[in-house]
Amino acid sequence: MSVPALTRPLPVYRAADLLAAYLPGSYYFSSTRGTLLADGVDAVVGGAPGNRATAAAAALAEVATVGGAAGPVVIGALGFRPEAPATLVVPSVVRRAGAPVDAPVPDAPARRWSIRPRPEPGCYTDAVRRALALIDGGELSKVVLARGLELAADGPVSVPALLTRLVRADPAAHAFAIDVSAPGDSAPRTLVGASPELLVSRRGDQVVANPLAGSLPRCADDAENRRRVAALLASEKERAEHAHTAAGVADVLGRFCVNLHVPAEPSVIGTPTMWHLSTKITGTLAAPAAPTSSALGLAEALHPTPAVCGVPPAAARDAIAALEPADRGYYAGLVGWTDISGDGEWVVTIRSAEVSERIVRLHAGAGIVSGSDPDRELDETTAKFQTLLRALGEGTRS
């Protein structure tokens, strides 16, 4: 007698095994909640922007009915703008393990790179000044402006090796590698990164969001780091920027949740390269069975938060389109997974890059509010590039 697919015991793997097994074309996601590696495609999830959670629920139900992968999930990424590319699939094989653990970080290979800023640094600071004029004129309260780098290596970039260095450098980050190849691409394309920012996580009827906004670079000196953490907590400008983001996230989750808890004061979390003001928001879903209350449904409702867009959102999106010369693509979108029960984890697609053979494209942004200094915002983007540049062996260059 066969055992139904959804009741078969799942094999037990180690996080390190799944990381070592990743190959381009697979789908990888890890965090402190666990590690997921998926392969193959049982279904491609379509749906219009804002309605993909319903399409995902239908795809998962259909795959489960025909006996697809045990513990099926939808995994993938959505771009920043509603019309941006989207990659959402139900994989054929899903393997899970615990969270990554500390391990030595492999050295990046020595190689020659050419780096092209998109735009040039001076053009970015000019855009910040133009954004400040919009803020002073009352059209915006906040807008997040990003700039890009395009790196060309002297040979193909190994995505598995890059992913391994990102996971080992910060096992607590939300690391991912998602195949985002599209028709017309001359070579396979992978979205890879290690995001510090949890957009939303769901377990049963419990949800967690952890918006980040307000940042300072981390350094090698412990005493100076303590000073920077204190300065971040005391900064009126950084706290104002963070308050916009936390309030926006709480407002959206309040439409879905009861007993929503929003801490009165932010805390500070650190990555290997940055310090961020952080607010951990928790709540209980009022209607957990609804597709719109799935992890993906909540993520769609939250996206884009003021952490990557601005306030008010529509005006900020228009300003971003006018002031940023390069399209963001998947940067500042969302990446993650949702299972058939609606549980899952979605993060903001920052500290990320798109890799295609020897070309690597990455972005970093900074929140512009009244009182922002264009040169300091440029420095902030430079610091945020370091997560990927270090993993590529090009730290300090920007």
UniProtKB/TrEMBL annotation:
Keyword Signal: no
GO terms, biological process: salicylic acid biosynthetic process
InterPro entries: ADC_synthase, Anth_synth_I-like, Chorismate_C, IsoChor_synthase
Enzyme class: isomerase
SUPFAM superfamilies: ADC synthase
EC number: 5.4.4.2
Residue runs in coiled coils: none
Chorismate-utilising enzyme C-terminal domain boundaries: 124-384
Any one GO molecular-function label of the UniProt entry: isochorismate synthase activity
One of the Pfam families matching this protein, by short name: Chorismate_bind
Family statement: Belongs to the isochorismate synthase family.
Name of protein: isochorismate synthase
Organism in which the protein naturally occurs: Actinomadura soli
Species classification: Bacteria, Bacillati, Actinomycetota, Actinomycetes, Streptosporangiales
